[in-house]
Amino acid sequence: METHNRGSTAKRYFVFLWLSTLLFYGGGATAQNDSSRIRVSVVLVQLSVAVTDRKGNYVSGLRPEDFTIVEDKIPEKIATFEEGNEPTRRLIDPGPSNSRSMMPAATSATPGAAGEDAVISGSQAIGSNVFILFDTSNYMYRGFVFAQDAIADFIRSLEGVSKVALYSYSRDLSRVATLTPDRYQVLRGVRSTVAGDDAALYNSLLMTVKDAAPLTGRKAIVVFSNGPDNASLVPPEDVAELAQSTGTIIYMISTREAETEPVSAAVFERMSKATGGKAYFSKDWRDEKQAFNSIREDLAHLYAISYYPQPNANRGWRAITVKLASKDMQKYHIRTRDGYRLLQQTQTSGGLAVPVGPESASK
User: Is 101 exposed, middle or buried (0-12, 13-18, 19+ CB in 10 A)?
Assistant: First the structure.
């Protein structure tokens, strides 16, 4: 029992270190540095929403007024709206007066009057940022070249995606090609990967989520895994929660080998669903390519919706419900994340970050 407790404590401490690093370097909150009061501004909550019919076909052409958003049973007003690769539209100004100076770069164009439907100009407002996390552990010896080909084809086919990054992992994470608009650089990185060592998927996925966290707009991590995790210290539930709280979609592509391991298959399903993504289990290289094509289509049809949260005393997990307003549209299916947790942050007089108050929700 004592050994189990020590192992659990070590895992939680590892996660705390990563969360503290995220809060200090990647957070968007501001804190008022005095001995008696801490002031933190909630900025923006960003959602990536897929709408499909009963046959799984994407429903396009929906408007902002077709959606209703509730956070902890509190109705929210849509602030920005984007369909697929169309320009982002700003619908309202920031709600909280103390958050005006903290608007994310992707929504920093000069707004019109409150309630005015304005188009946000600039390329930063269009497209997604995609991180590809490639399993290069010893599980990948069989079919490694086919996996490289499937990833390369996926990269070439991406349209409306602003930047792509390629990370690989075995026991450690390797940032083969950091986030860049240069597809050739990423493709060269794919061919440079080699297989070997154990698989620390959840450790590596946590670090990838941390890299994606500060980004505004749509962001997704596409994981290609050939087997279960056998070397991580981080529990997958903590990775999924951080991805939810930072608005990062996780797509999982794995082989039938991982599917035959019930625990890993269940974790992959839960993690992807919790973040608004999907899990795919491929029996051969043809299925792998089909899974990548499905993800590409999904990214191209997502609605990007954001809102400035109404006053909410809850400083823990906040539940989000997205529905379609019209009764005629209730037959459609909505897929998105179901909530986020306010991360904690403050700053001491010595400049050290200590998690004690709500972080910016600019996710």
Answer: exposed
Give dist(CA 238, CA 253) in Å, integer: 20
Residue 323's pLDDT is 96
Phi and psi at 276, nearest 5°, equal 90, 10
Q: 140: closest CA among 253, 259, 225? A: 225
Domains of the chain: residue spans and CATH: 45-84+87-124+302-341 (no CATH), 127-300 (3.40.50.410)
How confident is the model at residue 108, as a pLDDT?
33
Q: Taking Cα atoms as reference points, which of 284, 280, 276 lies closest to residue 303?
A: 276
Q: Which helix (H) or strand (E) holds 163?
A: strand 161-169
Dihedral in degrees, nearest 10, Cα atoms 195, 198, 200, 205: 10
**Centroid of chain to Cα 211:** 10
Residue with tokens 């991406």: 158
Ramachandran category for residue 233: left, alpha or beta (phi over 0 → left; psi -120 to 50 → alpha):
alpha
In 218-255, alpha helices (H): 236-245
Q: Is 355 helix (H, G, I), strand (E, B) or coil?
A: coil
In tens, the pLDDT along 62-84 reads 999 999 999 999 999 999 999 88
Which tokens is 315 given?
Answer: 């400083």
Q: For residue 79, give the 3-state DSSP assignment.
A: strand
d(CA 62, CA 111): 23
What would the pLDDT profile of 191-235 be if each residue is shown by its tens digit? 999 888 889 999 999 999 999 999 888 899 999 998 788 889 999
Angle, helices 236-245/2-26, rounded to nearest 10 degrees: 20
Bridge pairing between strands 161-169 and 303-307: unpaired
What is the per-residue pLDDT for 355?
Answer: 29
The alpha carbon of residue 134 and the mean position of all alpha carbons in its chain are separated, in whole angstroms, by 17
pLDDT digits (tens, 9 = 90+) for 342-358: 865 433 323 322 222 23
Which tokens in the block code for residue 290? 């089909």
